[in-house]
Amino acid sequence: xxxxxxxxxxxxxxxxxxxxxxxxxxxxxxxxxxxxxxxxxxxxxxxxxxxxxxxxxxxxxxxxxxxxxxxxxxxxxxxxxxxxxxxxxxxxxxxxxxxxxxxxxxxxxxxxxxxxxxxxxxxxxxxxxxxxxxxxxxxxxxxxxxxxxxxxxxxxxxxxxxxxxxxxxxxxxxxxxxxxxxxxxxxxxxxxxxxxxxxxxxxxxxxxxxxxxxxxxxxxxxxxxxxxxxxxxxxxxxxxxxxxxxxxxxxxxxxxxxxxxxxxxxxxxxxxxxxxxxxxxxxxxxxxxxxxxxxxxxxxxxxxxxxxxxxxxxxxxxxxxxxxxxxxxxxxxxxxxxxxxxxxxxxxxxxxxxxxxxxxxxxxxxxxxxxxxxxxxxxxxxxxxxxxxxxxxxxxxxxxxxxxxxxxxxxxxxxxxxxxxxxxxxxxxxxxxxxxxxxxxxxxxxxxxxxxxxxxxxxxxxxxxxxxxxxxxxxxxxxxxxxxxxxxxxxxxxxxxxxxxxxxxxxxxxxxxxxxxxxxxxxxxxxxxxxxxxxxxxxxxxxxxxxxxxxxxxxxxxxxxxxxxxxxxxxxxxxxxxxxxxxxxxxxxxxxxxxxxxxxxxxxxxxxxxxxxxxxxxxxxxxxxxxxxxxxxxxxxxxxxxxxxxxxxxxxxxxxxxxxxxxxxxxxxxxxxxxxxxxxxxxxxxxxxxxxxxxxxxxxxxxxxx
Length: 706
Prior knowledge:
The structure is a single chain. Helix 23 crosses helix 27, helix 23 (572-583) crosses helix 28 and helix 25 packs antiparallel against helix 26 (646-653). By secondary structure, this protein is an alpha/beta fold. The strands form five sheets. The chain has an eight-stranded mixed beta sheet with strand order 1-11-10-20-17-14-16-15, sandwiched between helices. The protein has an eight-stranded mixed beta sheet with strand order 5-4-6-3-7-8-2-9, sandwiched between helices. A two-stranded antiparallel sheet has the order 12-13. A hairpin with a 4-residue loop joins strand 18 and strand 19. The model is unreliable at 1-16 and 505-513 (pLDDT under 50). The protein has 28 helices and 22 strands. It starts with a helix and ends in an 11-residue tail after the last helix.
């Protein structure tokens, strides 16, 4: 090799980065963990004694409102149970609201066992059972709608206490507005019990409630977990280290020196190449050796969860009794929903005791996973962060692979609240002496960030209230525009603004303009006046009255469709398809061969598009969003309503099973609201009611009561 050639090659050689080493995983643990691991086990069974914060909360709700802000898994449901018992003892009625249908279903089953099935009802949209029972469990949207109806009819709501579970959803970007509306509209005579994970501004929220409800709101906080949490670090060699260690006399924690040494290496060894999953089978062997199972692994995506299950083929239960029990239980559960009996992941579930859990799965399959995990029959669940929100899904160990989270639009760094919510699943009360949160190194793991979050306080919950046409129409049923503006002055957003400006005296807000919120209300109001849903004086017209009952995603554009006679009047399957086009939010992969689209559906679809185009353009000119209509979801729901097999409909939809189920369930919600228009559009309402029955069937729902 010539010197010139060597000189030419040297720069190129420097461009190649050294590949991080991949080590063979062998179970090992740092000496500091010996005493920690010795505490693993089941606590001694003793008679249940409520914690002080629990008894304080039950007492506080008798004298006003109460906000309970405690770590996940601390026993918030016990507070609700005792409160409901007190209400029932004096022949009262209670409403228990949750953010999720799945959580409402679980609470309904739980409360039915406690209070008796005849005393408990459920209202979630796709379930309506025993609606006149003294205890009602349902979703917050249903509760909000009942408050709209009560205000319109001039009646007080038939409840003597309202419990809002997972109350930190007040800060949810998409659904927080519903929670805030409930808190504003709820009659002051009805005590409000808020059950929340730890939040950073509980006293702010309580102060706001006191200012608008004129009664004391007691804040009950508890920072101590019922089961201690110990953070761990999984080294790529398979050795477990403490993640944190006490640094000084003040007890401030810093990253353990051996973990810091790994982080600070220029080319630290890795568990897997970038964008590849780590060897989960080897990782599980380490966790099993140190008795750290069952575990929940939080992964980035659905695909990662499914792929992780495939990497666990070597995981086999060493206890034949548990294996037999699990197989028997799976057989019982799939019998209730035959469609999932041949689920692709059933062999992994049955033989490896591992499962994936994410929103791309059918509700029936997710319920099976949740049931098996809660009964102690699974070793591992690979899940997206949705598991952290409200589902009773405890484990001994939770494992992080990423320090960021997808919020629906982009990946953002985890907040302290999100981390606390996920770590709340680690350590099962009454089943574990200690819980563990384990960090795995990788491309998307900022170990320093996660280490800081463990000791960071929960983040404050913001106001997410925003104006929409459904809100304006429903408030104008019972309020003048001026009264609506006064209601908006009671928003949490207005309260926070007043605090910022120092406009608070003796616990009461000074009168002030609602600012942007009020301006946005007037913008919506003026458009409703311009389009004939509201009179110039601010009262609902006849069209506005019935349009207010469309408590759906795009009420105004759907109402205009009815005014123009665009919706089908006699064909339930076509009605289901057209409504699905309004529900759909996906814009990709909508190329549909016209030959495979049913002629009568195409005719109505293009009729709707043509008739609504001028109104849609008017909305856009006035700054209001109008989602485009796509043919594929319309054909998908038409095929399903027309009786096509699930497999065929799923293949055509290009959706995951869970996404298709969600499209159907949301379409059913919209169809129910349309069916309520029977006095104005009797034929279309009848078609909507029939369409609802046609699409709510196995495997989308395994139970349905009209």
